[in-house]
Amino acid sequence: MPQPRTQFTMPMRILHWLLAAMVLAMLCIGLSMVASLGNYHTLVSIHRPLGIAILLLVAVRLVVRLLSPLPPFPPTVPPRERLIASASEYLMYTLLFVLPLVGWGMLSAARYPVIMFGSFQLPFILPHNITLYWWLRQTHTVLAFLLFFTFLAHFAAVLFHTLVIRDRLLSRMLPWTSRPR
Amino acid sequence: MEPAPANQNRPPPVRPPKPDRSLPRLILVAILLAAVLAGFAYEAGWLTPHDLTPADFVPAFEGTGARPGFRLNHAKGICVSGSFESNGNGLEVCKATVFSKGTIPVVGRFSLGGAMPFQTDTLTQVRGLGLQLTAGDGAVWRTAMINFPVFPLATPQAFYDMLIASRPDPATGKPEPAKIQAFFAANPETAAALKIIKAQPPSAGFADSTFHSLNAFIFTSRTGVSTPVRWIFEPAQSASPAPFAPADDKNFLFDDLIAQLAHGPLHWHLILVVGQPGDPTNDATLPWPPTRRRIDAGTLTIDQIESEDTSPTALLNFDPLVLPDGIAPSDDPLLSARSAVYSASFTYRSGAAKPPSAVTPADIQGIESRNHPGG
To answer: Which among A63, A115, B74, B300 would be 20 to 30 A from A159, CA to CA?
Structure first.
């Protein structure tokens, strides 16, 4: 009988840490740009293409996720926690799709050019309507905070399992090959 | 793959954690979580609540008369459209496709400075012109200009302090000269800039106003050479010999513009003023020497006018940092701040229903029918 996996597949692990770094950078940029006068333009100019890059990568990640075998939960994760962990995974995937789309949509509704780099810009995906812009702008903030708190819960759960319960939960996602001691 | 060790599938040892051993680890988890929260709070500026933010400008402009549904500043305005005929001369300093030889569509908005959307027009109040030029390849250039040769304020903080100083006393509803005096004492560059501004008396109306970019921008040519540039839209028509609107008209500047456009299109030359090393790019209160080279890059034609109440152009933010490839902001601290505050203003007004503007479609129709050539 084959041994069950102890880690996620390498493509999933690479995508996880790449997206983690991008999303954390994105949350920091988003938070600081709305409070910034001097760095506003520079930060917005990074925020736009980085958001679209996350949208593309999460699409790749979803396909990889659907095609990849998953390691089972360790026995230290009780059924209720497994449900919560799965639900938060689905929530994060949803937010990583919806947040960039809301951002792209709100720029479209306001008719701000959606500039990626140089002269390359994306088309508008919504009609010119500033009431729609206002709703999407508020939604963007609410969803960003929801993503932040989902990340925080995920971070806290992995830390608690790895450091306090000491069940090596983190090793399932570590980029290097890891075997139980 | 190496063969998996025999104990691979053994569940990790699940010891009920002993309190004496897990407490320090629990504390470590708490510290790591607190560190992440603190990092985000720092990024969001919550640890430095006294730093000036774009949101601070909303109550500051409201204190000087901003109204929901209208722009925070330059709240009184009218929308126009037309075209820009580029002669190709701009390509020498800038690769932006708006400078390629040819004619491209333009929309714009003439405005009166200040937060009050229904203020009475005066000749001395600053006039604004926001433009959007759209090149054939879709590249967009927005600019928000005023009819002052220099800007009276050097930094976002000075702008904010000026708004606070000019806020009327809530008890009397009157300006407080002592606060304004204190502002001038603290910002000597403003007095110097106002001296330059007052040396050029305002023209009779919008049609014969010269509009200035104020801030410097960095233009990049096709060969990769970067040049600091300030630009000017210079009127091709002289002052109208006699005002069209009656002297007691609250909207005489706007009404004159409507009447003049009923008689024919208006034109401005786009002049690129090419800076030289040493010319200040980070301070819009300082003029450049008048001897700087000027490139006439083409002609702006305005031939249509429409009330904000019906024009989709009213729903644009003339953010001065919506720039095509080839034009970039300079090191002027006002530029990024303008972009941030314009964005705050745009979100502010998009969240409320806009009451009718000072100049309504009926006003425009009435003036046009009275001034129709031959009619």
So the answer is: A63
In contact, A32 and A39? CB cutoff 8 Å: yes
Q: At what angle do helices A130-159 and A79-110 cross, to 10 degrees?
A: 150
- All residues of chain A having their beta carbon less than 8 Å from the beta carbon of residue B11 are 74-76
A105-109, A166-170, B173-177, B252-256, range with the lowest pLDDT: B173-177
- pLDDT value at position B4? 42
Positions of B annotated as catalytic residues are 74
Q: Which candidate, B315, B282, B309, places its Cα nearest to that of B132?
A: B315
Residue A150 makes CB contacts below 8 A (sequence gap 6+) with A88, A91, A92, A95
* Residue B35 DSSP SS3: helix
Rounded Cα distance, B207 and B257, in Å = 6
Residue B134, strand partner residues: B140
Q: Report yes or no: B202 and B124 within 8 Å, Cβ to Cβ.
A: yes
Contact A163 B28 (CB under 8 A): yes
B82 backbone dihedrals φ, ψ, rounded to 5°: 175, -135
**What is the SS3 assignment for A108?**
helix
ipTM of the complex: 0.93
**pLDDT per 10-residue tile (average), chain A, 181 residues:** 82 96 97 95 98 98 96 93 95 98 98 96 98 98 97 95 92 82 51
Contacts of B317 in chain A (CB under 8 A): 110, 112
Q: CB distance A35–B51 less than 8 Å?
A: yes
The whole-angstrom distance between B286's CA and the closest CA on chain A is 20
CA distance A179 to chain B (A): 7
- Give the helix ranges, DSSP H, for A111-164: 130-159
Q: What is the DSSP string of B248-263?
A: T-TTHHHHHHHHHHHH
**Six-digit token string for B373:** 């050539």
Residue A169 half-sphere exposure, CB side, CA atoms within 13 Å? 23
pLDDT over 70 percentage in chain B: 93
Question: What is the distance in angstroms between the Cα of A3 and the nearest Cα belonging to chain B?
Answer: 7
Rounded CA separation B177/B139 (Å): 46
Residue B140 is predicted with a pLDDT of 98
Give the residue on A whose Cα is nearest the Cα of B331.
A38
Quickly count: other Cβ atoms within 10 Å of residue B185's Cβ. Answer: 9
**pTM of the predicted model, to two decimals?**
0.92
In chain B, what residues touch A75 (CB-CB under 8 Å)?
11-12, 14
**Side-chain-side CA neighbours of residue B161 (13 Å):** 18
